[in-house]
TrEMBL record:
Organism expressing this protein natively: Saccharopolyspora phatthalungensis
Molecular function terms from GO: DNA binding
Name of the protein in question: Excisionase family DNA binding protein
Occurrences of domain Helix-turn-helix (ranges): 6-53
One Pfam family named in its UniProt record: HTH_17
Bilayer-spanning residue ranges: none
UniProt lineage: Bacteria, Bacillati, Actinomycetota, Actinomycetes, Pseudonocardiales
Length: 56
């Protein structure tokens, strides 16, 4: 079964930005994400749609 989420580090790599920039955009709601306890996860389908320009 394929994972349904990305980590912030994985998203930073995809976008070609630093880990700090990616965390900032996640916290600010720019990148679609969910907070699970102390951990941020980025739903794969929502991120892929956001990246393609379809919004969150």
């Amino acid at each position: 079964m394929e994972r349904q989420t990305y980590t912030v580090d994985e998203v930073a790599g995809v976008l070609g930005v630093s880990r700090g920039v990616a965390y900032g955009q996640v916290r600010d709601g720019v990148i679609p994400s969910l907070r699970l306890g102390k951990r941020w996860v980025i739903p794969r389908a929502r991120f892929d749609a956001w990246l393609a320009g379809g919004g969150a």
